[in-house]
Amino acid sequence: MKKSVLFVSVLFCFQLLLAQNLSGYKVHSHNDYLQSVPFWKAFGAGANSVEADLFLEDGSLFVAHTRAEISKTRDFESLYLEPIQKSIALDLGFDQPFQLLVDIKSEAYSTLDTLVNTLKKYPSIIGNPHISIVISGNRPKPSDYTKYPSYILFDYQSLDPVEDPEVLNKIALVSLSFKGVSAWNGKGRLTAEDLEKVKATIGKAHALGKPFRFWATPDSKTAWKALAHLGVDYINTDMPFECKAYLSKLPAREYRNTVFSEVYRPTFEPDKKKKPVENLILMIGDGNGLTQISATVLANKGETTLTQLKSIGFLKTQSADDFTTDSAAAGTALATGKKAPNRAIGMTMDGKNAENMTELLSKKGYVSAIITTDEISGATPSSFYAHQKDRSLSGPIRKDLEKSKVSLIASTDQPGALKNSRYTLLGTPQELQESKSDHIGFLMGQTDDPNKEELAITTENALAYLNNKKQPFFLMVEGAKIDSYGHSNQIDGVIKEGIGFDKAVAKALQFADTHKNTLVVITADHETGGLTLPQGNLAKNEIEGDFTTDDHTATMVPIFAYGPRSDLFQGVYENNEVFHKIMEAMDIKN
């Protein structure tokens, strides 16, 4: 296979990958001939339009920005017409509209006549219904537009009405300089005055019934998004790959929240009191870093129950053997106070079992419960009852559960996963608080929960069950799917799960306000996705999420606390110190 054909094939495959997520936004490769690989780079990126500046020199057509830059090796046919013809012959696209914008830099009539004669040699191009040849730059008088073949169209650079319908029919799009409307540099936002000017310009252009393009625009994600949302039909860019990749995923990056967490405002009566802690509620938002929390807050009308709290710190999350932790090592650090290697459940670097909270607290007369939106054998929940060298050993992990010190479990397991278990599965979360049994369970996720209430309801009823035991208790609640949506880079799922987790936080704080010997600690095992929030709209509860990875990151995660001794959790420290701070708050020696 010739190198050129191979190159085309590779680029086309790349284009197909991008095409799977097309958003409908059109990208125009401005001054495309200045790209490292003209035409192919933009075409491979899925750009809908490319621009070539054209000079007529000694009877031949050359592509260059200025006449002084003309090179005999950069003729129009070899850079554009031959590649397009080859692509058509190889059936490598052009089943969608594609625009070749020819910006004439030399005298209009003679250059255009030469271009028409040249195009006659490429019947597959001029006969393709999806390809438009659009003349920009130096153009004939509008009244002469109709003299040119049907495959020649024109770029109209005015907002004045076009009275002649035949001339209007020869116009492919309307283009204007952005700098003639606004001096915005693409950072931050358009001023209110400039925004109205831009909207008015786009509106007048669309009144002509044609697509619209600004040239000389800022070239940034912020600008691309703003112009696309304002209705600009062709987004002008010198970075066609980056622009197309961004715009093709923009609908999935934006989420407008419609389900809200009602904010509970704690009394703060028991908060920071120097009194012994009897009950402990530890809540872990898996993958719930500061940005995930911020996204939930901003999508939840600007506040959540979690962000009412005053005792706040940050955890360093590195595992014993890696810069970036997994859930097993992080869960083990929180549950045992020992740093662990990635994938290890309740075991340290030397392969020894590390005593976890449920084991230690059972010796002190505590009853324990675990709630998770994951399977009960998931890495985080199992760190609080199991000891296995690898998180994938679900069979041995489940055997550890059967001999654990955990009285109540709630998870999203399938019913068959707990067959022959010592845990009696109840049909509703409300049955939990009525049970007198020492080993009960409830399986969440069996019915649709559009309002994300199930974790909160299960938490509330589990607290009632534990309170009825008339013993001090430990409850671990995990919002596991924040992590799942971080891995898949779905901002909507991150926020929805964050809302559900915050509703559970509200139930925990309500309990702590009525049972003032209860300490509530809320944190995350790690951050997932490298999430940032470049833009949004508070009035619309709208968030744009930009992920940098589909894996965990090593950024610190926040920790919140409420109740007696909550001030112990302020500051910045290693994640395994959480265990020791909890033991200090409970006045337990280990």
UniProtKB/TrEMBL annotation:
Gene3D superfamilies: Alkaline Phosphatase, subunit A, Phosphatidylinositol (PI) phosphodiesterase. One of its GO terms (molecular function) is alkaline phosphatase activity. Coiled coil: none annotated. The active site is at 327 (phosphoserine intermediate). It comes from the Bacteria. Residues 1-19 form the signal peptide. The keyword Secreted does not apply. The keyword Phosphoprotein applies. Its cofactor is Zn(2+); Mg(2+). One of its GO terms (biological process) is lipid metabolic process. Binds 2 Zn(2+) ions. Mg(2+) binds at residues 286, 380, 478. Zn(2+) binds at residues 286, 483, 487, 525-526. InterPro entries: AIM6_PI-PLC-like_dom, Alkaline_phosphatase, Alkaline_phosphatase_core_sf, PLC-like_Pdiesterase_TIM-brl. Keywords: Magnesium, Metal-binding, Phosphoprotein, Signal, Zinc. Belongs to the alkaline phosphatase family. This is Alkaline phosphatase.
